[in-house]
Write the structure tokens for this entry.
Amino acid sequence: MSVESSATPLGKVRGLGPAGHGGHHWLEERFTSVVLVLLSLWLVFSLLILPDFDRGTLLEWLGSAWASVPMGLFVFYAFKHGLDGLKVVVDDYVHHEGNRVAVHFILTILAIAGGAAALLALARIALGAAAA
């Protein structure tokens, strides 16, 4: 039995399917994937055109808005995409509802903490506090 055939008629119209999540999660994963591919290409090409990879050059590069804004987006979408992927793995392999909620909570807290730390470090570099 396919997923679509087990959905209610209203669920088929809304695109929700039997799980109630529908295409939203799938589209969100694809969107973050495309954004990360584009930002990864930007990062690679940006690094390739730098004259040197010493600390001063990298700090100067990340200090510009042309580098810090896309890097901030890269950090945000990387943590979001990673969290979404880990949640899917947890949903597939953790079958007890209480454990699944607890693991989702822990993963969310870790992703927020890691993303915040990375964005704070980037902000310090972009605003010049780390150059001292």
